[in-house]
Design goal:
By secondary structure, the chain is α+β, with helices and mostly antiparallel strands. It has five helices and seven strands. The strands form two sheets. A five-stranded antiparallel sheet has the order 1-3-2-4-5, with helices on both faces. The protein has a two-stranded antiparallel ribbon with strand order 6-7.
């Protein structure tokens, strides 16, 4: 019987929004997590884009694998396409994924940043990251909340992402300076 897996590396880790049989920490090679997608809907607008995570080429990415029951595969993919493909900035791909605890390698569906899309931001400097995250707000809420929820979940999973950690410190400093 075939297995159906999803790889989450951002908000899918802490808010998957679909039913799954089990989840397990996972690793995908050849891509890394990066705030490289301008958000025009969920965490920003075209006039004031926020930033969301994408899988970008190179390196590796620790995240979460979700096994989906065979009978729920079509509805899960439909849900993910509606959520992740609002502006078609991601490419839906099947990638080999290492399940960290069991050591098994499975194929998983994941969403990779489309470098040719107008919303692809690439590698932004720290100041630009901070500006977009502080000012981004869309239909799913504030970009700050998205980033801090992701950082918190990564910390819980013992995953250290230096760029997101640095940004979280800057966001904490920014919030403290506004209160002063």
């Amino acid at each position: 019987m075939p297995q159906f897996w999803i790889f989450g590396y951002g908000s899918l880790m802490w808010r998957p929004g679909f039913d799954f049989i089990r989840s397990e920490p996972a690793l995908v090679r050849g891509y890394h997590r990066r705030l490289c997608v301008y958000s025009f809907v969920h965490r920003g607008t075209p006039a004031r884009p926020g930033l969301v995570l994408g899988l970008d080429r190179g390196g590796s990415c620790h995240g979460m694998g979700f096994e989906i029951a065979q009978g729920r595969w079509e509805e899960t993919i439909a849900y993910l396409r509606a959520r992740e493909q609002v502006t078609s900035v991601y490419l839906e791909r099947r990638k080999s994924m290492l399940l960290v605890e069991s050591g098994a390698t499975v194929e998983a569906v994941t969403y990779v940043a489309d470098r040719k899309h107008q919303q692809y931001a690439g590698a932004l400097a720290d100041g630009a990251l901070l500006d977009h995250v502080v000012n981004g707000h869309g239909t799913s809420g504030r970009c700050i909340d998205y980033v801090m929820n992701t950082v918190g979940h990564l910390r819980d999973m013992k995953i250290h992402d230096p760029t997101l950690e640095r940004l979280a410190r800057q966001l904490d400093y920014h919030a403290a300076s506004k209160r002063s």
